Amino acid sequence: MTLNKAKSRDIIDSSILKLSKMDSGHPEIFISIQGEGIFAGTPCVFVRLAACNLSCTWCDTKYTWDWKNFEYTDHVITLDHNSIYTIIEEYKQKHVVITGGEPLLQQEALMPLITSLSKNNYVIEIETNGTIDPVKPLLKMVNQWNISPKLNNSGNPKDKHCELEILTKYKSHPNAYLKFVIVERQDITEAIKIAESAGFPANRLILMPEGTKGPDLIDKSGWLSDYCTKNGLRYSSRLHVLLWQGVRGK
Ligand code: SF4
User: How far away, in angstroms, is 102 Cα from ligand 1 center?
Assistant: First the structure.
């Protein structure tokens, strides 16, 4: 199957959700600490959805979308929203992070789950690449938007990795933050330009070093955190990488 055909299949609307499947056969729903962004350090339940519309070269969750190198049926499981809610509830932790892949590919199917979580006073974060227009009810119900627009360093086609018009829609949400993955110093200028063009204030811009192993991350952390300190910008580490070296399900 070609990648494009697989992606077309992924974005077909459905009343059930496609989640990442662990080697154990269970859906990738787990408790951990948030490793990135303004809630870094907070204990959360993570729900990892399958499929993505981009293909970043440094992506650390390629098993959610790269059907050239990962077998779809080994890595995707379907579940209805009630089953997902039940699993989340068992963790007894009222903070949920919906991540991926790209969760908004399944935003219609996500609505019942988000509605249940919202009604039951969960804090809900969604991590998105910012290329898919969020439907209004979802935009309102989600407490925290972690939007990670991609830069040239991601290796995606230039006309696909960043959608300014869509990013602009998030700027009025008080808890929408732009978080950029920085590989080289030159990426910083590109990130700031995008944030300014989308009308985001500097205090809702986060710069985060790329790295899926502790040493890579630490190499970039020094110069990037220095830059943030000198320029009054937020810096984010990737605590899960430092703690668990990118082990899946942690
Ligand atoms: S947008 Fe996120 S999930 Fe999709 S390829 Fe890029 S890093 Fe991976």
Answer: 7
Determine, yes or no, domain membership for 176: yes
Instruction: Give the CA count within 13 Å in the CB-facing half-sphere of 227.
Output: 19
What are 118-156's pLDDT values in tens digits? 999 999 999 999 999 999 999 999 999 999 999 999 999
Distance from the alpha carbon of residue 150 to the mean position of ligand 1, in angstroms: 9
Q: How many domains does the chain have?
A: 1
Q: Given this model, what pLDDT does residue 14 score?
A: 52
**Distance (Å, whole) CA 102 – CA 129:** 7
The residue nearest atom 6 of ligand 1, judged by CA position, is 56
| Test site for ligand 1: of 20, 48, 56, 181, most ligand atoms within 8 A of the Cβ | 56
Q: Does residue 223 form part of some domain?
A: no
Task: Say if residues 134 and 169 touch (Cβ distance below 8 Å).
Answer: yes
User: Is 186 among the domain residues?
Assistant: no
34 lies in some domain = yes
Q: How confident is the model at residue 214 (pLDDT cuts 50, 70, 90)?
A: confident
Question: Peptide bond before 130: cis, by omega within 30 degrees of 0?
Answer: no
Q: What is the pLDDT of residue 161?
A: 86
Expressed as residue numbers, the domain containing 22 is: 3-180
